[in-house]
Every structure is written in structure tokens, then in C-alpha cells.
Amino acid sequence: MRTVELTDYFSRLLSIYESEEYADNGLQVHASDEVRKIAFSVDASLSSFERAASLKADILIVHHGLFWGRSAMLRGYMGERVRFLYENNISLYAVHLPLDAHETLGNSAALVSHSGAEIFRWFAGEKGLQLGCVGRFTRTLTWAALIEKLNSVLGNPPVAVVGAPDSENRIHTIGTVTGGGMKFAIEAKAAGAEVFISGEPSHAWYHPVLESGIPCILYGHYATETLGLKKLQEHCANQFNLKTVFINDPTGM
After folding, report:
1. Does the structural domain 3-95 have CATH classification 3.30.830.10?
2. Strand locations in the chain, DSSP E?
């Protein structure tokens, strides 16, 4: 499949031109004309590029790309990254907020659905998109059961918890904004969430969230933003006669 055909498909599927995004979404580096294998990874890092090369991928799809709405000098580590992509014929496609917000393939939607809840409301408006969703469980879960379920979905225990209730408290609704979304916890409560799930802890938001009374579970920026890419990988594997691979390159943050 031609690279431009595949990336045009992604851009339409994820509606990347419908937001006022501060990142440069789309084909950031066009180093290969044909695609036989697609790799997916959270970050555009040299380590993920090296893994993509070892796996003989023709294109790498990432959530956090190289370019963020302003010119970048191609020197130092940026120059090394771009040179590596061209030398190894690996194109790079990035999709940031539109992947967070997608109603079925997005990070927030995937976290809620994998947790066993049904999405009933979106919130957390940013750059013309709704980044977060609230889900409702058919049967309530205890706090302990919710933590166990989320640990299984995300592959690691929480990195921080703010305002944990008693372990036997019953939970009917959860809300999430993945990555650096802790600032939306209070808005999640107003949207009907009893518990908020996000990625990266924020010192500035610790006390406001604690005082708001909504428990907040933080699993790390990286872990919460693997889910949308894995959904997109699954979609591509079903849609195209192409090989796909997910590159797990955790930062622990």
C-alpha cells in the first residue's frame, strides 16, 4: 500500500483537520513510498525508531510526534532522529489530541470500554475536541475491584492516588482524560463521574482535586496512552492486508 494512501486514510478516520491542535498531526516524515508493515508506539523517540527498524517496519504511527506547531531545528537529537528515519526508510505519522478524543479508537474511550463501562457522556473541551468521557457500569464495583480491573487493563499499578475512599465503597461511574489530564478531575465530577482516572500526577492540581472530593487514580502518562494506539493497530489489522506491530517503550512516567 502506498504511504500517502495509508496516511490519508488515517487522517480522515481520525478527523485530524477538525481540531485547533497545537501539534503537527499527520505525516511528519515521508521516508518510504510503500508500506508493508506498520509499527505503533507512544513516543517518537530514537529508541522506538531503532525498534521499528529492527522489526523492518515501513512506517511508525505515534501519539507524541516530533513537531509541535513551530519550526524545529534539525540538529542535535532532533537531527539524529530524522536522519535515522531517512536512513532506514521509515516514515513517521503522528496523531495527538484527535486520538485522545476519538469516540471509539481514542485513549479515553478505550480506557472506559476496557474497564467494562459504557460511555454515556463526553467532557473536557480543548482545542475544539472533547478529550474525556464518563462511563457507567452495569453493576457497581468496589474500589478494590476497580483498582484490580484497571491494573489489568493498563498493565501496572497506579503511580499515585489522590483521595482514595474505603476499599468497599461501591462505584457506578468513572471518568477519564488520559496523559496529562489531572486538571480535568473536577470537571469529570460535574459530568457525573464518581472516580477520575488519568495519567500524569500534577502537584499544582493535588490540593484542588483532593478538596473537590473526587478520588483520582493516576497510572502514568505513558500507560494511559497506549490504549488508543492498540485500538488503531487492531483496526488496521482488520482493514488492510498489512502486518502490524506495537512497540512497547515505557518511560515509567
Report:
1. no
2. 26-29, 37-43, 59-64, 91-94, 118-126, 129-142, 160-162, 170-176, 195-198, 216-218, 243-246
The pLDDT score that the predictor gives to residue 19 is 82
Tell me the whole-structure pTM to 2 decimals: 0.96
Q: Are 242 and 236 in contact (CB under 8 A)?
A: yes
Chunked in runs of 10, what are the mean pLDDT values of the chain (253 residues)?
98 92 95 98 98 98 95 94 98 98 97 98 96 98 96 97 92 98 98 98 98 98 98 96 97 94
> In terms of CATH, what superfamily is 100-222?
NIF3 (NGG1p interacting factor 3)-like (3.40.1390.30)
Residue type, 34: E
Same fold, 3-95 and 100-222: yes
Give the span between the Cα atoms of 231 and 56, in whole angstroms.
21
